Amino acid sequence: MSGADARRPLIAGNWKMYKTVAEAESFVQSLLPRIAGRAGIDVGICPPFPALAAIVDSTRGSSVGVYAQNMHQEPEGAFTGEVSAPMLAELGVQGTILGHSERREQFGESDRALQLKLPAALQAGLEPILCVGETEEERERGDTERKLRHQVQEDLTRVEDARLSEVVIAYEPIWAIGSGKVATAEQAQEAIAFIRALVADRSRVAAERTRILYGGSVKAENAQELLALPDVDGALVGGASLDADTFAAIVAAAP
Ligand code: PGA
């Protein structure tokens, strides 16, 4: 097996700060039968912290993995309001989103912190989904590649080559998040191929295996075209992941 054949598609739903435990449970009850026949693909949901334990339980034995949306880099300590990787791993959580643009922009998430968070997640047995992407202004100035190079190189600095392919990367152009403005197929393929080349600069073998997702206004209507692109290994879905029917339609659109 080589190249795209070795990469199992991942469709992950980033719920952000939506859904109580009860709402999350009812989503899962509605999702599971809708995706039951779907083989050869990984499905992830990323609920807020309070719903993680319940959703790990109610998805047990299914193809759905549960991911957090953030974590602290230290295993424990005086960090009021934070949650660590071993705490998430103990719940049976599969991984966590790291470096989402909302966290970078609104909560001061830095590349420096991400350099520590990525190896901490791997060490605890969690699969990180590292988000990177340019602003609209950066794209217009022609700085997309510069921004992606900076984020990918910096954030992965402390991940050893042998573990690089365990990090899922999500290319999320910030101008496409929650805006209804999806990247064109050409923009998505170009940026994701560029990210893969950046990983290849570290390790060719890892680059062949690393799953790179597209995120930003993915909907049932545009999923098929995006997911068919040669370097796109899945999607990180925000708004459209909150409804079980819509999310199942996106899962069904994966090749
Ligand atoms: P969106 O969000 O699908 O609502 O654009 C994507 C994300 O923020 O991960």
Q: Can you characterise this structure?
A:
With 255 residues, this protein is of the alpha/beta class. Helix content is 42%, strand content 15%. The chain contains eleven helices and eight strands. The protein has helices spanning 21-35, 52-58, 85-91, 101-106, 111-123, 136-140, 144-155, 185-202, 204-209, 220-227, 244-253; strands at 10-14, 42-46, 64-68, 95-98, 127-132, 168-171, 212-215, 234-237. Helix 1 runs parallel beside helix 11 (244-253). 2-phosphoglycolic acid (PGA) is lined by residues 14, 172, 177-178, 215-218, 236-240.
Bound molecules: 2-phosphoglycolic acid
Flag low-confidence runs. Answer: none
Radius of gyration, CA atoms, in whole angstroms: 17 Å
CATH topology: TIM Barrel
| Helix-strand sequence | EHEHEHEHHEHHEHHEHEH
Amount of beta strand? 5-15%
Structural class: alpha/beta
Amount of helix: 40-55%
Give the CA-based shape. globular
Number of strands: 8
Question: Order of strands across the biggest sheet?
Answer: 1-2-3-4-5-6-7-8
Q: Please state the average pLDDT score.
A: 96
Going by CATH, the homologous superfamily would be Aldolase class I
Helical segment count: 11
CATH class categorisation: Alpha Beta
Distance between the termini: 17 Å
CATH architectural group: Alpha-Beta Barrel
Major sheet description = 8 strands, parallel, barrel
| Total of domains | 1
